[in-house]
Amino acid sequence: MLKYVIIFIWACHFDDDNYVNVAELVRVLKKLDPKRDWYLGRPSTMGPVGVDSIPEKATFWFATGGAGFCLSKSLLAKMSSYVRNGGFEELGEFLRLPDDVSLGYLIEHLLKVKLTVLDKFHSHLENLDEINKNDIHKQISFSAGGQPKIMKNVVRVPEEYIVEDDPQRFRSLHCFLYRKNCQR
Description:
The chain is of the alpha+beta class. Helices cover 27% and strands 14% of the residues. The chain folds into 2 domains: 10-117, Spore Coat Polysaccharide Biosynthesis Protein SpsA, Chain A; 128-181, no CATH class. A hairpin with a 6-residue loop joins strand 4 (49-51) and strand 5. The longest helix has 12 residues, at 99-110. Residues 10-169 form the Fringe-like glycosyltransferase domain. GO terms for molecular function: glycosyltransferase activity. This is Fringe glycosyltransferase.
């Protein structure tokens, strides 16, 4: 019988409506030691979140899931006893919080590992068109943007495709970042 060994040093989460600049993500992660505890991401709140619906009140930061986040192998190992066998779902139900906020509670409050804020992660909760065009290649992730019928919140890059074929501008963004690999 064949057995597969999966070796990883980082685990990153991105929503299915994110564009991930993998080259920049790899460049950033290579600079960090995965044997240390790392919780990388970007908050979307102006301050830490407070939870007072539990016996032990807590305040903590959390990385917004809509922008993506990464966890080091060391941190994942420390989290395992809390998350295995449905433990993470139970924690979220107990806290009555969304999964990204529950994760922040687990990591920052229970494990005492602080969020390392990287402004290279971008969610739909910020104005994506304010990202300087010259800095786009230095960013890790971009969310799909706001609600299309209300406001178009997209990264400002040259339009390579008509809006109907590229509503989030991700194909155009890819062409902007990787001109040689752009398939038009």
